[in-house]
Amino acid sequence: MRHLLCLLSLLVCLQFSLSAEENASHLRGINFLYMNIDSSFATEVTAMERLDLSDIMELQLRRGDIELRSFIANKPELNVPLIELSIDSSNRVSTGQFDLVLRVRDHVTIDRNKEKTVATTFELSRTARANASEIDTIKAELRELMTAFVMIFRQENL
User: Fold this and answer.
1) What residue ranges in 46-115 does DSSP mark as E strands?
2) Candidate CATH numbers 3.30.160, 1.10.10, 3.10.450, 1.20.1260; the one for domain 2-156
3) Core-most of 32, 86, 114, 117, by most CB within 10 Å?
C-alpha cells in the first residue's frame, strides 16, 4: 500500500512538471528564434543526416512564418530565444526506441531573487520505435513534431 501511495504521488508530481513544460503561453511574444540540434546522445546520426534534420526544422519554421536567425556557435549566450532539438537513441539497444525532445529556451526571471537566467520555457517530446531505417523514422517523427510546434506557436502569436 505504501508503495502505491509513493507511486501515486510521483505521478502527480510528474503531471505537474509536464503541464508546466508544455505551457504554450510561454511562446507568446517571441518574434524570432535561433535553432540548434543536439545529437550527442545519438552517435549513429551522421553529420549529413544532422544537416537533413536541420533542413526539416528550418523548412517547417519558415513555412510557419517564424523568423530564424543564424546560430552563433562561439557565443551560445547570444542565441536566445533558442529552439533546440535533442535526439536520444541511447536506449535503442535495449528498447528499440528513440526520443526526440523539442525545447524552447528563453530568458526568465526567478521570482525569489529577481535573478535573470535562461531556462526551458516550452517542451514537446516524442518517443518512437525505429523501423528498418532509423533515420527515416526520426525524420518522419521530426516532421510531425515540428508541425505540432508551428501550429502551437502560430496560435500563440497571431
Assistant:
1) 67-69, 82-88, 97-109
2) 3.30.160
3) 86
